[in-house]
Description:
46% of the residues lie in helices and 11% in strands. The chain is an alpha/beta fold. It has five domains: 14-192, 3-Layer(aba) Sandwich (Rossmann fold), CATH 3.40.50; 200-325, DNA polymerase beta, N-terminal domain-like (DNA polymerase, domain 1, Orthogonal Bundle), CATH 1.10.150; 330-384, DNA polymerase, domain 1 (Orthogonal Bundle); 388-496, Beta Polymerase, domain 2 (2-Layer Sandwich), CATH 3.30.460; 502-574, Beta Polymerase, domain 3. Helix 10 (231-244) packs parallel to helix 12, helix 11 (253-268) runs antiparallel to helix 12 (272-287) and helix 24 (501-509) packs across helix 26. The two termini are 46 Å apart. 41% of the residues are buried. Bound molecules: 2',3'-dideoxycytidine 5'-triphosphate (DCT) and magnesium ion. Keywords: DNA damage, DNA repair, DNA replication, DNA synthesis, DNA-binding, DNA-directed DNA polymerase, Lyase, Metal-binding, Nucleotidyltransferase, Nucleus, Transferase. One of its GO terms (cellular component) is nucleus. The active site is at residue 311.
Amino acid sequence: MIKNKKRKGKQVAEIKIVPEPQRIFQNLHFYFFPNSDTHPGRRQRIIRALEYGATWQNEFNDSVTHIITDREYDYPQLLTYLKLRELPTAVILVNENYPSSCMEFYKLVDPSSVEFRVKGYELPAPITAVQPQAIPSQVSDVSLKLKPAKGKAAAASSSQLTPQPEASSNLASSAASLLASLSPINNDEQQAKSKDEDELESAIREAKESHPLASDDEEDGNRHKRRKTSSWQDKFTCMHKHTGGKGDQGPNAQTLSVLQELADYYDQTRDPWRSKSYRQAISALRKHPTKVTTKEEGMRVFGIGTSIAEKIEEIVRTSHLRKLDSTKMDERQQILNKFLKIYGVGIHAAERWASAGHKTLDDLLQKAELTDNQRIGVAHYDDFNTRIPRAEVEQHATTVTKALKSLDKIYTIYTMGSYRRGAQNSGDIDLLITKPGASIDEIRTTVMDRLVPLLTTQNFLVAALAQTSQADGTKWHGASCLPHSKIWRRIDFLLVPEAELGAALLYFTGNDIFNRSMRLLASKKGMRLNQRGLYKDVLRDYGREKLSEGTLVEGRDERKIFEALGVPWRPPEHRIC
Ligand code: DCT
Ligand code: MG
């Protein structure tokens, strides 16, 4: 225990350095803005940061790894104060919420999460739904650092976290022991690792462990799907619904519903790590046969850690959770969440609008500058955010099939995505269109030049939202509406030549975790899987950067892709991870 300097007229504050394995800020150098400890709240934050291993830099210098600003200050004010035109890219800029969130979770959480943003600051690599691969460059979560072999994204994040390699490895090792001693997730995962676990299961587990946004394949299809409304954050909510099974009627029902709210909140605030911890705890608690009422009982449940166990006790004692109240109270956060669920809106637009004082969808319609797609997204906000009953998905698919067959009988349409996995409702309608023996050019011409206009004149297609390039595109995204209905649904056409049908069926069935696990497995076997096929003899350099495409092993037949990977066939409804 050390004491800080006695300050005139002030009480001596004690700094209690936490045990070494818990020093999550070890080797990190914090600069606080405003640069003083006269404000009691900031002073407290500085002390806590020191207790968890950070240094406090009184001057802005080369060693600073993080700038922590008070919430009311913005980026231009910081730059003016520092007399800089922009921040060095190695420095991570976050608001005051960041250190406390890290301490709450005993790890470095993702600093690019919306709740840590400083007004007016554009991340060096923009976070948008369109370029999710850029996000990990800002991610400093230790779990990523501990798995450097995971691929480009993970490697990038670890190298960018701290400028000096030693600092980084020290952090990783202290974080490793910290995680080993504290993190229930890691402990469980270790225990769950059985020797004869089959390859796919183990790849699925690894895919789940990896950052939800970390792409193990730079496939354009991946990026493209992520362009979708509320894309990835909904993935986890919807996954959960499927895997959750019987709903929450058991002894822990009330606790589960509160935890679920918090998990959803973290989904929306793009904090996949915390979201994952909550989901894991939820699924553990759901299986637990008796009511968990205390922190100690909670910690005995496989998959629940200290922090969540404490929250469970609080929920049982008070019927609610202070954390949730405070997250609910954060009005700006709520506004951002709402804006982020608009089709075609990324974090930049959402923040711009929130900063301009827009609060509601009406504000946006009346006062904000919107693209045509965003205007549609706002006007049909509820439509696009409502899941589509299975029977209605079928009606949309039938309408498209009829129209297409009227143009050419030989075409085949498959309904993909969550529908093919057997879901009772879907976020959108994913239709794969193919024709035996036809080239992609022929299919494209039929769909873009004939089918889309035909369905538009039938008033079934009501909006064209996005299309990959006219010349070589294979996707069309829009909205459809059934006769006698007013609800617009998101509909995607995916154009696939017969030779790639198997790989496309596999990819567009998903779910995304299953896809990631299959790609991971392929890559471990020296192969490469994408939505066009499975390839072998892919040359990669030491950084796993792809040097050659390799030779096609299988593209046409979905089952044969499983066989070639040495994985027993899994029907679509068993691909929910
Ligand atoms: N996909 C993927 N990775 C992503 C997004 C999508 O591998 N990040 C694949 C798997 C599912 C398929 O594309 C269709 O994508 P979505 O329509 O986004 O998902 P879904 O599973 O159909 O779920 P929803 O019911 O929400 O549409
Ligand atoms: Mg879908």
